[in-house]
Amino acid sequence: MARNRRSGIVFTVVGAGSSYTPMIVGELMRRGDRLPVEEVRLYDIDADRLEVVGGFCRRFVGGALRVLTRRTLRTALDGADFVLSQFRVGGLKARHRDIKLGLKYGLIGQETTGVGGFAKALRTIPATLEVCRAMRRHAAKGAWFVNFTNPSGIVTETILKHGGVRCVGLCNGPLGVVNRVAKALKRKPNAVQVDYVGANHLGWVRSVRVNGRDRTAAVRRAAVQDRLKNIPEVKLDPVFERVLGLPHTGYLKYYYYTEGMLEVIRNRKQTRAQQALAIERVLFRKYADERTTTIPKELRKRGGGGYNLVAADVIESLVNDLHGVHVVNVRNNDTIPGVAPDASVEVTCRVGREGPVPVYPGRPLPTHMRGLLQVVKAYEELAVQAGVKGDPAAALHALVVHPLGPDAGKAAALLRELLRINRSYLPQFKPDKVRSFFRR
Fold first, then answer.
1. DSSP bridge partners of 197
2. Fewer CB in a 10 Å sphere around the end CB: N or C, the chain?
């Protein structure tokens, strides 16, 4: 596969200072008989976090897998077959600022949707394109960019439009939906196939089959709900939930119950970012302890359950041409009518050596799904334009278009503050252009 080595897969993690990294390294080790990984390279701009995580990973896998840390993107990507992205530009402190900025304007500042997701997208796009440029120069021919970096849908769309590399976007959320459906039907998850459709963190189940048999009605009666650690609980309306019917991502609560969700977030003593920081302090203290050789239980509190399984399952399907069924983020083409062909969508696909192929192409969406999806995809298109080109006008339109964004009376002030707070992470927004844009 890659150049300058004898055999096996070179797997690179960009953003390896993440507390989640040991999960994927451990999963690659467990699948050694199906995934012949020669070495795992860990890269992060934070050298201290990288060394702590790298040291723990080496203790965790023992001699079963070669784990290396790399200080430069070039050496991390040289000859790599798979590049897994999981970085957070600005860290959890930036996430905290995003939440507080949203609340200041009476808005939800969650990290993947609304004001918070928009700020994170603008910070993340330049770094993502830097990885793409390095992949084109140094990675193996035909290497895959496996994107977990949030907001995953926007980042994946950026790569598909501007990255020039093969890419598949992943999220652990749909796996949770499938697992809950399987539990309701008293079946194993690998026996259940869902028609999952939408965008990242904006998806619905349209139908369910078990071993080829339609079980949609049974799932509707079971009233399966998605509960995630990082999404606040809010009182649900039983009539609306009955009419909505089939399972969907828990992130839709931000759209369906906006006032209730905003109230819960506003009344919390700590933001989710502060909670995550506290968890990470414990995790990294344990990772740094030479006596720690297993993944600490505190990692379950971070909300990334199934992340390692999703990544390894999709990579195994790509490597071994399994044509396994997985929910992934891909280029729409004609999969969802009414959505731009070059947009990223999150849908059920069969994944083989050549990449993901949607299982249910061309099926029209119900109006209530199509309406919300089209608006959010318009926002994401504008967000990609703003993030790639440093376009303040596209950024302003993106904020106003988003269902959770500000109205036009507040949008310019919010955008000005957002750009100011994040200016050290936004090289694409040239100061002269920004000043000119806001000149009255």
1. 204
2. C
